[in-house]
From TrEMBL:
Source species: Lates calcarifer (Barramundi)
GO BP annotation list: protein localization to microtubule
GO molecular function: microtubule binding
PANTHER family (UniProt xref): E3 UBIQUITIN-PROTEIN LIGASE MID2-RELATED, E3 UBIQUITIN-PROTEIN LIGASE TRIM36-RELATED
Organism superkingdom: Eukaryota
Gene Ontology CC: one annotated term: microtubule
Xref: InterPro entries: B30.2/SPRY (IPR001870), B30.2/SPRY_sf (IPR043136), Butyrophylin_SPRY (IPR003879), ConA-like_dom_sf (IPR013320), E3_ligase_FN3/SPRY (IPR050617), SPRY_dom (IPR003877)
Residues annotated as domain B30.2/SPRY: 1-154
Protein name: Probable E3 ubiquitin-protein ligase MID2
Length: 187
């Protein structure tokens, strides 16, 4: 019994997190519909991966290295998006301190934003098959997650622009609905 008490005490001390390696966490709610926005305060962290994953995603594998997870990541001065083992470099400011994440499950998209500068970074188009959960992997420093946030105005503008570009590429015209005027929605 003493050994268990000792390990319990040790597990809640800062020393628990002082080693090398990565630390991962997943949200406690699986998302299977709707539009959800959260932000991650990145502080001084220069090595992380933030995104979503299916419950079936391998636990002992980096997020984005499999077909069950999608992430935006930073490794020192390189920013990339990753899914199914494929990485693509993306442009983001080295001063990125607040990452916005927009999951629009019903419209099959996961978008990342520089929330401080109101800039779109990348959007994954995903045909979701199962519920997903937010995921966070950190290799250095720490991050803070702000959940339950309303979708900011700049996200609606970027989402509209992206949707318009996609429709133009497909040869479709965008029509405004009089019923949506002034309403904040995910696109």
């Amino acid at each position: 019994m003493e050994k268990d008490e000792s390990s319990l005490k040790k597990s809640h001390t800062p020393e628990r997190f002082s080693g090398t390696g990565s630390y991962g966490a997943a949200g406690n709610v699986f998302i299977d519909s709707g539009c959800h926005y959260w932000e991650v305060l990145l502080g001084a962290s220069t090595w992380y991966a933030i995104g979503v994953a299916y419950k079936s995603a391998p636990k002992n594998e980096w997020s984005g290295k499999n077909s069950s997870s999608w992430v935006f990541s930073r490794c020192n001065n390189n920013f990339m998006v990753r899914h199914d083992g494929k990485e693509m470099l993306v442009e983001a400011s080295l001063q990125l301190r607040r990452l916005g994440v927009l999951l629009d499950y019903d419209n099959n998209s996961l978008s990342f934003y520089d929330a401080m500068n109101s800039q779109h970074i990348h959007t994954f188009e995903i045909s979701f098959l199962l519920p997903v959960v937010p995921t966070f992997m950190i290799w250095n420093k720490s991050v803070m997650i702000l959940s339950g946030l309303p979708v900011p105005d700049f996200v609606d503008g970027v989402a509209s622009d992206l949707q318009e570009q996609q429709q133009q590429q497909m040869g479709l015209c965008r029509q405004e609905s009089p019923y949506l005027t002034g309403m904040k929605t995910c696109h």
